[in-house]
Amino acid sequence: MFIASRLLIALLAATPILAITGGSFAQHVISLATATMMAMVTRGSETQIASAAPLLKQFLLIFLLPVAWMTLQIFPMSSLANPIWSATSIALNQPSLPGRISVDPGATLQSLFLYLVNVSLLVSTVVITRDRRTAETILFVLSAVTTLISVEFLLSQLDSFAGIIRQTGAATNLFPAAAALAILINGALVARALERHLHQQNIRNLAAPQLWVSVFCGLSGITVAFAALAALGQHTLVAVTGCGLMVLVFIAAVRRLGFRFGPSALLFLGLAAIASAMVVPHSLAGGLGLLGFVSLPPEALAPAKHLLSDAPTWGNGLGTFRLTSIAYQEFGAALADPPSTAVLMAVEAGRLASAILAAFAAQFFLVSFRGAVRRGRDSFFAAATAAVVVVVLCESFLDSSLSNPTIQAIVAVMVGVGLAQSVGRTSGADGAAECRAP
Q: Rounded to whole angstroms, how far apart are CA atoms 131 and 381?
């Protein structure tokens, strides 16, 4: 696993460069590195693979259902076919065309491949980071690269570095997601420093240099990332990221108070329901549905609004948003970008698929939350993943930066680290020794 872990570190170290280059180059690099890593993992330690298998089995349905959904969209299905095929047959004066759900089966097949790459990256990360020291190293690297991506954006605002970043629309900019992830990961490292200090030393001994260096580095990363969000004008995302930090604080509080997972989860869900009841009705007041969460001018939302209203139950096919948006644009206009990841999924996969994916995100959160509450001094891994899942789910309604392959890779690795460390490497009598921190 040593070579596989070093390859994972190398891939993460390349993400600041991939954030600048973007496009198909980033996809090719991530795909090649993931394929190599997966091959090494399958030939690695059987003990490490066996310890990761129970963690992954509980998500088997989550991993397989999108594959089945995209496969269904690709193959001819006369009863579920998109109406565009019958209309095209009439326009071309042909008796019939092979009806499919997807309006572009090739694009949907490519989306299926990219999805399998991300799943393979997550699975590989779970196996590699079952070792705690490796997991810590990966978390430090994640903190460094996400903070560096935020620094890249701040530098691009200076005249001396203008043009180093390819200009894209606000909705498709990957930097908001990177900054939000940097805040959460650095927050987790601050929690790690405090947890280790309280575990090893007297609570009154606050003069330890290692403690203050770790806290200073974490707070510096958080400050840089918040500055990037402010420069991006992402005020709503700042609030959402603040909620992610509150998840970290909430988990730390219930652990210190000695709450078990059940009461802690019910308390958190109650607080989340109250917050949702305050925010969601206000965002939906304009009758825009999913578009009510997006901060874009009305003219930029017009094609997506029509696409949403006309989207079939089974969607238009993964990877087909820009193609289907042509029909709703003025002649000669540039191809529209999706205003948010939630809108993208509703148009391409259907509203039912979007609801199912949200339920799957809830399962990822609950598993991570349970691991964070039950684990000992290493709870910050799972706590960070729980916070990341919350922020990623909320941000999917705000912009489409999560559709960027570089951000998807970072999220996959972060979730993999949290799942790998959501339980200890021992069970039974040995597992009982991994008790909650006092």
A: 12
Q: Which two tokens stand for residue 78?
A: 């006369």
Give how far Cα 437 sits from Cα of 185, 195, 227, 266, Å.
21, 8, 34, 21
Q: H helices of 169-234, where?
A: 175-200, 209-232
The two tokens of residue 28 are 């090719």
Closest CA to 409 of 223, 149, 232, 42: 149
For the CA atoms of the chain, what is the radius of gyration? Answer: 22
Residue 406, CA distances (Å) to 17, 22, 119, 136, 234 in order: 10, 8, 14, 21, 20
Which amino acid, residue 429? A
Pairwise CA distance, residues 232 & 121, whole Å: 29
Q: Is 424 helix (H, G, I), strand (E, B) or coil?
A: coil
pLDDT tens for each residue of the chain, 438 residues long? 788 999 999 999 999 998 888 778 889 999 999 999 999 998 877 888 888 888 899 999 889 999 999 999 888 877 777 676 666 666 656 555 567 888 888 899 999 999 999 999 999 999 999 988 999 999 999 999 999 999 988 888 887 766 666 655 544 478 999 999 999 999 999 988 888 777 665 555 555 677 788 888 999 999 999 999 998 888 889 999 999 999 999 998 998 888 888 888 899 889 888 888 877 765 565 555 677 778 776 776 777 787 888 778 888 889 888 888 777 766 555 566 788 888 889 888 888 887 888 888 999 999 999 999 988 778 899 999 999 999 999 999 888 888 889 999 999 999 999 999 988 765 433 333 343 443
Torsion of the alpha carbons at 377, 380, 385 and 390, rounded to the nearest 10: 120
Q: From the CB of residue 162, how many other CB atoms can be counted at a distance below 10 Å? A: 10
- CB count within 10 Å of CB 335 equals 11
| pTM: predicted TM-score of the whole model, two decimal places | 0.88
Scan for tokens 């003025």, then name that residue.
330
Give the end-to-end CA distance of the chain in Å, rounded to a whole number: 34
**Kind and range of the H or E run holding 391:** helix 379-395
What tokens were used for 339?
């205003």
Tell me the two tokens of residue 98: 């092979």
Question: Hey, what amino acid is at 78?
Answer: S
* φ, ψ (nearest 5 deg) of residue 364: -60, -45
Residues, the chain: 438
d(CA 200, CA 397): 42
